[in-house]
Amino acid sequence: MNNFSVSLFLLFSLLLTHGIVELQASTNQPYRTGFHFQPIKNWMNDPNGPMIYKGIYHLFYQYNPYAAVWGNITWAHSTSTDLVNWTPHDIAIAASQPFDSHGCWSGSATILPGGRPAIFYTGIIDSKNTQVQNLAVPKNYSDPYLREWFKYPKNPLIVSTKPIDPTLFRDPTTAWLGPDKRWRMLIGSIIDNKGLAILYKSSKDFKHWTKENHPLHSDNNTRMWECPDFYPVSTIGQKGVDTSTFGPKVKHVLKASLGGPPRDCYTIGTYSIGKDKFIPDMEESLGVVPGLRYDYGKFYASKTFFDSDKNRRILWGWVSESSSADDDKKKGWSGLQAIPRSLWLDKSGKQLVQWPVVELESLRVNSVQLPSKFVEAGSVLEVSGLTAAQADIEISFEMTDFEKADVLDSNSTNPQLLCSQKGASVKSAFGPFGLLVLASKDLQEYTAVFFRIFKGQEHKYVVLMCSDQSRSSLNDKNDKTSYGAFLNVDPVHEKLSLRSLIDHSIVESFGGGGKACITARVYPTLAIEKDAHLYAFNNGTEKVKISSLSAWSMKKAQIN
Ligand code: DQQ
């Protein structure tokens, strides 16, 4: 080696030992993402305690420091100034005391008067998974990164009481303050096959909590309510409001994470602070299928927070893997967070609308625009000139002459079933049309995100949005379940828009400007890196018009 090679070698070894060069990540890791939040390695699940403090966004998350499977659960911690680029910190909360000796499970942050954050989390106190609720506060309020947390010595502050099963009693929400100066907080549970949000009230000091006689709400046949969330949304416009806001200008949203299959369901209604009761606009709305869901694909244990700097409510959600646990162990990691989404009440007042935070657009480069054009029946159109494995695309479609639309059987009320029965290959008049993402050149592999339009009841049209993973990978060990949602858009009067965030092994899609969202995990074996392609397609029997198409390569974000 000459002097120059020796110095290069030394520099390279130095970078490697400091973990700056992640050799593995660039070579053997086609499924690591470029702009989604994930730790360097190991297991991650629920987002915890998101908040903004002194202009810094905080994200804590359920993390196993030792393996790529669930276990040894701690609160890991990262911060950001833009919700896009993230700096890791030391683990914030880990098992250390009798009140959390077997793990620190999910919880939330509340900003107390004077702008002081406090965290409530579920402590696991034995091998039976007995659950109690604990308080932690920052050690140093002048540190905007809130790197160290102090567990209140009198923990646990809340323990379960009969008839609650102490192993099904967890995930405290952000608290809200009533006009009586008492805080309220929910804890998820189940009694007699009815999922419920138990309501606790505290004294002014946030430390003494008593259980109310009635839950805030409960619903039949919903299993255990994990990670409940409860917050107001403005009835006018898209601005978010602080969690302790009540009155005629807001509606309230109650969300619960329900198992089998995992899904985050919500319901909109009215909250009477005087009676401490939530009355949903629709009865039993959390348990019904399809019901209202944040995301009709993979998205669970989510949590919102109010961004007081930008007056918006932001939603975080965990996106698990669709690969086998063995494959997760081989790649050394499991779990992503969806791109944080701004969320607001739709004009109809009947559902929420979600959209990736605007800061994400700072990663867009190499814009590709397509003039409006017809896509003939049975044709495929490549969108080239971008990094198709790491991209953001917005497309909208227009159609005329809906008379030819197929009639939807009035018994077809389950959109996911419809999507999986018809896939992307069964032709109807209008649809399937949409995008083929993470596609190989020969279309042996692709993930299809698309629409179908049907004639429904009373001269109305029904729009179905699907994400079909059945051809997403030649590897058959992955879960390739199809996802679907009805999209509340009138295609006669509105364009049909679709945005997809494509990031190596995740595809997050937003239909109708965010009225329906579907997230999928896919692991192509051919369509990776430079061999990934992006297409618009129309496999229906009628032509459709692309009225606009803009796509971008996405730069890599600095994540952990
Ligand atoms: N994950 C946590 C629990 C929560 C579940 C444990 C939801 O607190 O109920 O890691 O994914």
From TrEMBL:
GO terms for molecular function: hydrolase activity, hydrolyzing O-glycosyl compounds. The keyword Cytoplasm does not apply. SUPFAM superfamilies: Arabinanase/levansucrase/invertase (SSF75005), Concanavalin A-like lectins/glucanases (SSF49899). InterPro entries: ConA-like_dom_sf (IPR013320), Fructan_Metab_Enzymes (IPR050551), Glyco_hydro_32 (IPR001362), Glyco_hydro_32_AS (IPR018053), Glyco_hydro_32_C (IPR013189), Glyco_hydro_32_N (IPR013148), Glyco_hydro_beta-prop_sf (IPR023296). Residues 1-19 form the signal peptide. Residues 36-356 form the Glycosyl hydrolase family 32 N-terminal domain. This is Beta-fructofuranosidase. Residues 359-553 form the Glycosyl hydrolase family 32 C-terminal domain. The keyword Glycoprotein does not apply. Gene3D superfamilies: Exo-inulinase, domain 1, Glycosyl hydrolase domain, family 43. Keywords: Glycosidase, Hydrolase, Signal. It comes from Dipteronia sinensis. One of its GO terms (biological process) is carbohydrate metabolic process. Belongs to the glycosyl hydrolase 32 family. It comes from the Eukaryota. CDD domains: GH32_Fruct1-like.
